[in-house]
């Protein structure tokens, strides 16, 4: 069995995850002596994407006194087929300081097929100066499945508040479930010219238009400012797997 990764496990790189689930792929994808290495890696990216699901997890901290927490927060997603195991929510895409009063934080979670999401478990390790946390809600969006679920909480995760629990199992609110056309993964290859000043550090985005006039949403190719500085250099070729 071959389990390629080709991804960072780092809070400040890629999507910020430090744990990854890998899926087995055909032996041909890991042969480095192939003449079509670039194409093989591109196809590999789509192959892996087809076998996994990317979830966008939004977490809302309540707007109450001392609602924020400095503790390490974790989450587990439970589906009809499987669960993710414990995932640390390390790198928020929105805020440098996570889980502050009244703020929404956004995280990326990747997993193999879980089936329909049934419940989540979320909690913290009670470590740090200010550990008590008031969790308003969690929203989990799976673009490849075309479903967005809301998990209301509205309770303290604090040893000195409420019932003293620091982790909770919460269920989706059926009336707040949104369904839409599932997103499709595309492999995008960008060739930057070899003329003076050709590169850019700007936020490069893409919109795809179909023959019937329907178009996708605007999708940034880079996940963060660090990637904006790394990619689209003069005389470079960059590949991206994006869901739109």
TrEMBL record:
GO cellular component: stereocilium
InterPro entries the UniProt entry points to: Inner_ear_hair_cell_LOXHD, PLAT/LH2_dom, PLAT/LH2_dom_sf
SMART domains: LH2
Gene name tied to this protein: Loxhd1_2
Organism classification: Eukaryota, Metazoa, Chordata, Craniata, Vertebrata
Protein name: LOXH1 protein
GO biological process, one term: sensory perception of sound
Domain PLAT: start-end pairs: 1-23, 53-171, 184-244
Source species of the chain: Ceuthmochares aereus
